[in-house]
Description:
It contains two helices and twelve strands; from the N terminus they run E-E-E-E-E-E-E-E-H-H-E-E-E-E. By secondary structure, it is mainly beta. The strands form four sheets. Strands 1-11-10-9 form a four-stranded antiparallel sheet.
Amino acid sequence: MMTLVAGRKATLCLLAWGLCAGFASAKCERAAIHPDASYFAAPQSDGSEVVDSATSFVWQRCLAGKVWNRVSQKCTGTALSMGWQASVDYVKALPSTKGNPWRIPSHFELMTLVDLACSEPALNTKWFGDPDSTFLWAGSSYAPLPDYAWGLKYGKGELTYEIKSNEFQLRLVRSGN
Length: 177
């Protein structure tokens, strides 16, 4: 299995999105790359949807299967674990919503959530505080191996691939309006 990760002084540049971020090896040992102000609750979403101001992506705050609780300000319930094809089918079965439809993010889109100044998890936990997820499916197959799909390991922000029959979680995204 291949994992894209680098040492402390290395830099990962996602040219498709024009993003560059340095890697860190400890919990937020320096200023966050994606501080709290990078995100805001989507209007009229009761806090369950989060807008990334840099990309305009609208993310579900909770993993699929969980529900945002406005009172406790936490995701409640149990995250769904499913194979990659079941994840694709899950999204297809979602009811229509106003605006752009929910979808599984590409591996490049998942990387926009990663805050490489932090680890365990390598993301902004104020906005995406689902600590029970270790790997998120991406909507992209891994071209050299058709039985594999891209995904993101939250702990260190590693972009990698897994066999599609393995069961993992997903966080949905849609393009901003």
